[in-house]
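Sample entry (140 residues):
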Amino acid sequence: MKHEPILPGLKPAMMPWDFIRLRREAAGVSIPELARRLDDVPEHRADVERNLRIWESPGVRLKLYLLETVNRRGFPIDIEIYRQLCEDPVDHHPTLCTGCACSVWTPCTTRDGAECRHEEDGTCTACKEKAERRTTRRAA
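Predicted structure, serialized as tokens:
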């Protein structure tokens, strides 16, 4: 099912490799941790980590089976959104948070457990809360 933009005109370009990185970071999963989740052979770890870093490099597009594996064993990712970012013109991309790449179809949660909402500045309410907490801690 194609995800239509919710906030037309709010279109900071999100590239597929940025989407992968932001979703991984939002899930709190490091590259070494993701490598452990995807391949349990310690001798392969360095190669797997190197490949994961390549996945997040500009210009890289992942095959469907890799996305399905990440979704199943690594962290939640909306494969249809990834496909749209790869194949559709930018003006047809769904609205994604610039901080965590969540969408209205795959929202993250705020600190109190509520689903996030997308703000006019391109972030979601959960990312806005995190930024406010960081600012408060720095000021203290």
